[in-house]
């Protein structure tokens, strides 16, 4: 999930292994499971948690002749001007320059109107490819259809789960492994609580990727521990900066037994932390791997104990251009690619964010080497 209005949501998505921030207490013994059922739950939860703790490898498809695309025009249309999307676009610009492509980066204001206008500009100016970054193509479907009819390669970046069908007019997608990410999140909570959790999830129904994430998380959570309390609340995506802190305070008064909050939108963490001020029990999990959230987790100045982090954002930009280049040449193996993510908690946060993604250092050289 990208951030406030530009969330790749998916973002959407959180880890931990030790007691971390804000003086969280020892997890209580299970009140809902016992005996063999408890042992099986904890074992499965631990397995799921560990499944996303390790850094995934940098995967680049087989070499191809990117030089055949020299001089072609790629537009990067972002949902909003937020730091994460800016870094992705910076990476895309650097990659396009290295590939001999021209690139135009546009930032919207989070509305469909600005995305629609950018699409029309790109079509009118004869773009060869358009990457929609955190802009759901179904919200500007007419323009996407026009672009496809004009032979423009449209890619859907950060709005889908891997394996989802391509939307009409879309040539390829770059998405998240939502089921695996959400299973790891549920596993983290159950392993940490010994399958005795009371969890509240804030997730915006307005975003398709977070809706899919919420559904996947709830299914895995309840499969692990059917008797564990769970509540899903709709996050007011456009207004949470002014409403969420008070909402958290109200929810705490309503449910003093609450153990965990899963705030799937990473940029909502400051509001959640503010709502939990003075509380030393509730632990927070989130998604997006935003720099401020990772640094707060590292320093122990937040209630966040686990966070799903994206690969270095500039490297995602290189991935966007690599996919565009392959699809411009008709390569079918680039239709459905995965944005690398991993869970981080106090056990693997490292001293800096570079420590989270050591194998992605020099990603640019890996891509250019694959471009012959």
TrEMBL record:
InterPro entries: Peripla_BP_I, SBP_2_dom
Statement: the UniProt record of this protein carries the keyword Signal: yes
Domain Periplasmic binding protein: 86-331
Pfam family name, one: Peripla_BP_4
Signal peptide: 1-23
Keywords: Signal
Keyword Signal among UniProt keywords: yes
This protein's name: Substrate-binding domain-containing protein
Native source species: Amycolatopsis rhabdoformis
Lineage, opening ranks: Bacteria, Bacillati, Actinomycetota, Actinomycetes, Pseudonocardiales
